[in-house]
Amino acid sequence: EASTPPRVMRSMAALGLSETAIIPAEVPDRLFVKAREFLEGVSTPEAFHELDLPFQYPPHFIYDGILKDEGLGRVDPTLPGLDRYLAKTLHYLEVYDDILNRHDVRGVVVSHPNFPRFSTLAWRALQRDIPVYSTIHTNEHISVRRLEKPSDLCGAPVERPTKLFLGSLQNDQRSELAEQGRNYLDAVRRRAAGQFSIVDIYGGEILSRADFAELTGTNPAKPNVVILTSCWSDGPNGPGRTYFTDYLDLLERTLEVINKTPECNWFLRPHPAEFHYGDKMRLNTLVSGRLPPHAQLWPEGISGSAVSGVADCVVTAAGTAGIEYTALGKRVLVCR
């Protein structure tokens, strides 16, 4: 893009590229007009997800991009500048389509194609049967995935193996990978590994179930359900569209269940990296004054080390928690 920092351009030049295409920074006025036409009648976040855009481009990529840029948990249709986000996306689609028309492109390499800037390129390439190689760094490793059709882009697994992959493993491969997994989980628990080790998720004392009940003033005879919330603006639709519009929608539905289920002790724990995403969306603010007597926020000063010892069930939206606690033998509900 014309706004790309010079240091990034120098890095690209070091790759020995034969040609560079610059995406114009200025979005044509006609695309703003078109964007406002699309947005007419959009009165809810759910309606935004139903927009019928050119090239059948999925609106959830724009939705997640807005959340990320604005530090929000939900896109309000009255958000100032909403037409700008949509117009910019239409601009990307047109420019990339023109580039693909003018060049014999045999493959596309992109990083984090979950937001409009690069998902538009990946989408148009896949619609033309051009393979896309998606790179991402997560949990201390870099992965590259080959995408071959548009649906691959909308549901590419980031932190979980596919059923097809698991079924292809031989017994010795399963044993070796299981051992690696046990070693990794042990290192995570010792804070020697893991991308969130910097926020000290597992530091501190590991409480017994009885001590935890005394600390929280809860009935130890009731099952403990721990809700592990997400970073509100961090790509809720990245692994693909779900039953929920966004993480805030999931929270609202979860609160409805909590209010109807006094048979359990409910604990809501904020994501350990929540503070990295600004102060517009914080769990303690979102649930302030809304929790029934049988529910409370996870006690301050008690680390994630206690979760596996006191939880009868862990509830999460996506991410490593669903795999980690399952591997530790806990009952886990992944809400997708």
Topology, pairings included?
Elements: H1 6-13, H2 29-39, H3 45-49, H4 60-70, H5 82-102, E1 108-111, H6 116-127, E2 132-138, E3 141-147, H7 150-154, H8 163-167, H9 171-189, H10 209-216, E4 224-228, H11 247-260, E5 265-269, H12 283-286, E6 295-297, H13 307-310, E7 313-316, H14 320-327, E8 331-334
Helix pairs in contact: 2-5, 5-6
Q: What is shown here, in short?
A:
With 336 residues, the chain is α/β, with parallel strands linked by helices. It has helices at 6-13, 29-39, 45-49, 60-70, 82-102, 116-127, 150-154, 163-167, 171-189, 209-216, 247-260, 283-286, 307-310, 320-327; strands at residues 108-111, 132-138, 141-147, 224-228, 265-269, 295-297, 313-316, 331-334. The chain is globular, with a radius of gyration of 22 Å.
What does the model show?
It is a single chain. This protein has 336 residues and is an alpha/beta fold. The chain is built from 14 helices and 8 strands. It has helices at residues 6-13, 29-39, 45-49, 60-70, 82-102, 116-127, 150-154, 163-167, 171-189, 209-216, 247-260, 283-286, 307-310, 320-327, and strands at 108-111, 132-138, 141-147, 224-228, 265-269, 295-297, 313-316, 331-334. Strands 6-5-4-7-8 form a 5-stranded parallel beta sheet, with helices on one face. Strands 1-2-3 form a 3-stranded mixed beta sheet. Helix 12 links the parallel strand 5 and strand 6. Helix 2 crosses helix 5 (82-102). The longest helix has 21 residues, at 82-102. It is globular. The two termini are 34 Å apart.
